[in-house]
Amino acid sequence: MPLQLPPSKWSADLQDFRELARDFCQRELVPHQQRWAEQKHVDRDLWTKAGEVGLLCVSVPEEYGGGGGTFAHEAVLYEEQARAGDSAWGVSVHSGIVAHYLLAYASESKKKEWLPKLSLIHIWCRRRIERGRSLRWPP
Q1: pTM of the full structure
Q2: Which residue ranges does the record assign to the Acyl-CoA dehydrogenase/oxidase N-terminal domain (predicted)?
Q3: pLDDT the model gives residue 3
Q4: Would you state the pLDDT for residue 136?
């Protein structure tokens, strides 16, 4: 089900994030779906690539290495994954469930230890999104 806000109500950040997610899904998911179905898992480097552009743990607070976004950012990513016809990449479990269990139930020291690792190298990708350039999120 699409996000129930009309595009005119989306923030510029959410619109930019949708473009990033759509581009990533078309480039990194679509071409590999048949092979992933045959091997019964996605390639490990997909996770690294997703972390490099800031698509992992997007709704985890920045203080723990996440994107600092909202559930709307997660929903946009899942929509674009579905639009690409992919159901193999387990990002919704990884970022939407596991990371949030750690946020809710882990000690502060465990949050600081594990959440940045779930975001992979996401923490290195802090730069403002500018149209026409290689996109990274968060801005």
Answers
A1: 0.78
A2: 12-118
A3: 52
A4: 47
Please indicate, yes or no, if residue 104 is contained in any of the structural domains. Answer: yes
| Residue reference for tokens 């929903």 | 75
Taking all residues of the chain, what is their mean pLDDT, rounded to a whole number? 82
Cα four-point dihedral sign 138, 103, 92, 12: negative
What's the pLDDT tens digit per position in 94-117?
A: 898 989 999 999 999 999 988 998
- Tell me whether residue 22 is in a domain: yes
> Which CATH number fits the domain that encloses residue 84?
1.10.540.10
- Residues 6+ positions from 83 with CB-CB distance below 8 Å: 22, 25
Q: Range of 101's domain?
A: 11-124
- CA–CA gap between residue 44 and residue 115 (Å, rounded): 18
From residue 80, how far is each of 6, 15, 105 by CA, in Å? 16, 12, 29
Residue matched to tokens 């016809």: 85
Q: Residue 47: what residue type?
A: W
In the chain, which ranges are E strands?
Answer: none
